[in-house]
Amino acid sequence: MSIASNKDQINYVMRTVEERKVRFIQLWFTDILGTPKSFSITPAELENALEEGMTFDGSAIDGFSRVQESDVLAFPDPKTFQILPFQKGNSELARIFCDVYNLDQTPFEGCPRHVLKRTLTKARGLNYNFFASPEIEYFYFAKQDPPGSPQPLDNGSYFELTVADLSSDLRKRTVLALEEIGIPVEYAQHEDAPSQHEIDLRYTDALTMADTIMTVRLVIKEVAQDNNVYASFMPKPLEGVQGSGMHTHFSLFQGDQNVFYDPDAEKFLSETARHFIAGLLHHAHEITAITNQWVNSYKRLVSGYEAPIHISWAHNNRSALVRVPVTKASHPEATRIEYRAPDPACNPYLCFSVVLAAGLDGIQNAMELPKEANNNLFEMSDRELKKAGIRPLPMTLEAALTEMEKSELVAETLGEHVFEWFLRNKYYEWNQYSRHISHYELARYFPTL
User: Could you tell me the CATH number of the domain that includes residue 85?
Assistant: First the structure.
């Protein structure tokens, strides 16, 4: 097997580094939780890195290697090379995403990018290519010294149009920075909660999009930090208002054909799309620990704040877990599905992997799509939901982990290394949280018990 990438791509990277006077190249990868990691090399080391990889100590990354098998290889993917919009003095800074390999050049099992690439390879074996387009929500908060409760920068709401203020200016600067490095933004807007904003990214293949999400999160934080502001992707940082989701639009293609589109089907939703949705609903409770991986994620997935909490689907019903958006009359071939559970703090490589695996299972087993949920599910009683056969998503991280632990699909998709480590890490997080005495408990119980 040859890991070395296309020579033309390598030559392009080397030429660009020289022409743009890049002084440092950051090699990017993520740990299992999706935390960005990197180390920097100089242009003198770049060609060797592209051809042979760079050795680093995997035991220093939580969830990677054990001490006795610590060294691994970071192999840069030249297709991901990009000049970053943050100049360092008179020189430029670049980044490039890496796949992590063992020293014998076999894929390292703890690399989330490999997990997604393996799932995409399975899809290609069925003649499918997987595309994604996320809506990334996040908050801006004032920096405090010492740190205290989150302080929003504005009191705006949906699509708020105001005179120039700091938060709208930060969002504008972020969009311009993303466009500068070749990341196309489809929409940018104020979201419902105070100081909450949203950036929607244009469709591309799932691997490129996972890399892009990692870049976007860094750029949002960098632009905020440059203006002495904190940007947060925490799913629910403020009580009593909406949390931040990452509703993501998905579709499958065969060549140039969107297989979710059928011109002869009702509302153009193909049989393949219906099976995909059925698979996603069937496995939704198992994959939620991946799409919503933090204790705080489940403070967002509660009734009353527009987040999906019921395993259901519908055309253009935002209370459903899977929504089929109405496409423009001029572009019905843009038929797609929107999965509304993920939040912006998830690991996008693992999130996309389990969503795709669940959908493919629905296609391969010709799963039947349940009845469409046409009602506002937030207004239905538990009895009505049960009668309609609509189950809830897991309500806590612990409940989600219990479902994940029983899932053959998730275990097979993630691989033993990632599956076992993720469960251990997340059960530890839950146990730590369970021992914490919250302000709510003190305020409610201490005066009277």
Answer: 3.10.20.70
Residues 72 and 144 in one domain: no
Spatial separation of the C-alpha atoms in residues 414 and 37, rounded to whole Å? 20
292 neighbors 298 (Cβ within 8 angstroms): yes
User: Distance between CA atoms of 435 and 131, rounded to whole angstroms?
Assistant: 41
From 108, 139, 163, give the residue that closes a domain: 108
Strands (E), 213-352: 229-232, 248-254, 257-258, 313-315, 322-324, 337-339
Residue 312 within a domain: yes
Report helix, strand or coil for 64.
coil
User: 232 has which bridge partners?
Assistant: 139
The values of phi and psi at residue 425, to 5°, are -65, -45
% helix, strand, coil for the chain, step of 5: 40, 20, 40
Q: Quote the pTM value.
A: 0.92
- DSSP structural state of residue 294: S
Nearest by Cα to 317 from 246, 374, 366, 264: 374
- For the chain, give the number of residues: 449
For the stretch 158-202, pLDDT in tens is 555 554 578 888 999 999 999 999 999 998 888 888 889 999 999
